[in-house]
Amino acid sequence: MNKLLELFLTFVKIGAFTFGGGYAMISIIEDNCVEKKKWITHDEMMDITVIAESTPGPIAINCATFVGHKIAGLAGAVCATLGVVLPSFLIIFVISSFLDNFLEIEIIAKAFYGIKVAVGVLILDAGIKMFKKMSKKIFPRVIMALSCITMFFVQMFAIKFSAISLMLIAGAVGLVAFLIQGRKKEVSVE
Fold first, then answer.
1. Is the model's pLDDT at 189 over the cut of 70?
2. What are the Cα distances from residue 165, in Å, to 22, 127, 169?
């Protein structure tokens, strides 16, 4: 019961104090779950991020569900998921119930302008941490570099190309490389 409460409160804190959605939360989730609580390893966090990004649903909820399940099974998954969702739900519910023109309040609009910058920094921080922990092998780094270059040119020249398509292509290339590598090992053993 203690572990469930700890999971819930940890993810309530993450959900309540992180603006900018799932990508901004990755850095905070990693800090809490890997560095402070030691619930998961850095490698598991990278795996969670990849899986959470490629499955339906918000990335932060998927990450919370995985961590909760790893720590305390189904009950842990439910507690962590509720913890990360509840603060946003309550904040939006209160704002929508009482303030019709919330973003028209000058101080709120200026605060959100500053929050946009902080969100960008959180996302960049998560990316840098993941890059540092990425496998030192050349293949993953080449895939990452090609993906970044592709998305840069897609954005620069306003080409209609989905990031999801790029993820699927990168996943297919990784799978083919994995199968080829496995086949080479089989041949060398024989």
1. no
2. 20, 20, 6
